[in-house]
Amino acid sequence: MSDPICTVDSASADERWIITGASGQLGGHVVSLLASARAAGRVLALAGAGAVGVGVEVRRIPLQELVALRACVRSWRPTHVVHLGAMTAVSDAFARPDEAHAINTVATRVLAEETGACGGRFVFSSTDMVFDGNAAPYRETDAPSPPSVYGRTKVAAERAIVGMPHALAIRIPLMFGIPVAKTGTTFAAQLAALRSGRPLKLFTDEHRTPIWLFDAARAVIALARSDETGLIHVAGPERLSRLEMIERVARLLAIHEPKLEPISRLAISSAEPRPADLSLDGSRFLARFPQLAPQPMSAAMLR
Taking the chain (303 residues) in consecutive chunks of 10 residues, what is each chunk's mean pLDDT? Predict the structure, then answer.
């Protein structure tokens, strides 16, 4: 397997990228990294209504518009497609399951097929929410058992592409950090609440392996340039509850008495179960890309 050290920080002259979800928190960082690697002139950003990094071509194509998606891939003829666009809100997927299936599953399959037809490499972002939270930490070989509509659409997408020789599904956990657009994420809202002294209710019994946005973006680009196929987990090095995450942020900001209220996830009414522990085992990624090891939360927040 070839692993150039410059898996992220440089760009080949013949690369042509399509990034979906380019206005999202992860997509914005992927586009920004590619632009900084002087690949901006060969990046096509597919995005919703949000802002996208300067210097790249942007097209506003809804993921349900399959004819337009196919035409886009065929005309651009990408060497790499990074599919990050999705309906990610669990409540929205529950309320509109057909739309969630169209966006999260069908569009993924179509993009993967079209990418393969033009000889390109396809990667897409899946989620830790393909698991039920009862047997963490999860490896790539563990059987998914999602309790939510959102998780089921992602499992279906994985199964649609996992046998394709040019395709890879990347399971990514909860992300933290400031998106390129600066706002619009749960973490950004929590950070604003901390700084303004507003109270926050945070789960003590819901655990994840959170990853810094920048580290996740670097991993996605490196994997897109690799020959990995099937499934892979990219996860942060720490198992943290929602409360522990924000306590660390408060310490880094020198907020000595933050208004944090510990609660149980069971205290919140939800149409679908909230998994207790979705920690991912990211050792396969670390073995392949030790130079891209995700940072602990406290170290990442100091960057």
Answer: 46 86 94 82 85 81 97 97 97 98 99 98 99 98 98 99 98 94 83 95 98 98 98 98 97 94 95 97 98 96 84
- The answer to whether position 232 is within a domain reads yes
Cis amide bond preceding 137, omega within 30:
yes
- Quick check: is 164 in a domain? yes
pLDDT of residue 5: 36
Number of domains into which the chain is organized: 1
Q: What is the CATH number of the domain that holds 41?
A: 3.40.50.720
Q: Which amino acid is present at 188?
A: A
- Res 12: pLDDT: 67
Rounded CA gap, 14 and 243, in Å?
46
Q: 282 near 209, Cβ under 8 Å?
A: yes
Note if the pTM is more than 0.85.
Answer: yes
Q: Is 211 exposed, middle or buried, given 0-12, 13-18 or 19+ CB atoms closer than 10 A?
A: buried
pLDDT of residue 266: 95
What pLDDT does 8 receive?
58
What is the model's pLDDT at position 112?
99
CB 212 within 8 A of CB 176: yes
- Host domain of residue 114: 17-179+210-237+280-295
Note whether residue 161 is domain-resident: yes
Per the domain annotation, does 270 fall within a domain? no
